[in-house]
Amino acid sequence: MITEKVRLDRWLVASRCYKTRPIAQRCCEDGMVKVNGEKGDAGKMVKAGDTIEATRGEKLVLWRIVALDVKRGDATHAQTLYVDQTPEVPTAPPPDAPRERGAGRPTKRDGRLVRALKGDALVP
After folding, report:
1. I need a labelling partner for 112 at 20 to 30 A (CA). Which of 1, 81, 90, 97 fits?
2. How confident is the model over 48-104, as pLDDT tens digits?
3. How far apart are CA 107 and CA 104, in angstroms?
4. Domain 6-84 carries which CATH code?
5. CA–CA separation, 3 and 69 (whole Å)
């Protein structure tokens, strides 16, 4: 069913941002959802062209509404309801140099050398 305006919580479920409507309502109440930069109440009516900023776990998503729907459908249909404008989070490059000696836990070889210095019986 396609309409001109839809409740925010129903659209969030239809777009698969949240799994159930009570979860979407709770997130709206807790301030985890913003519509056009303002706090989004669960009953707020949204329309095509609005911008949704929502927190999903640790991830922040930024979506622009393209179409409206009130029923949760399959994932391919849900992706047609919005345009993802979430900025890319740069990942840290892997370290170029290997770990410096003495940083972190001692190796098995280091343990053997320590035991040998102490005079323990388990020396290779």
Report:
1. 97
2. 999 999 988 888 889 999 999 888 889 999 999 999 888 887 776 666 656 676 677
3. 9
4. 3.10.290.10
5. 7
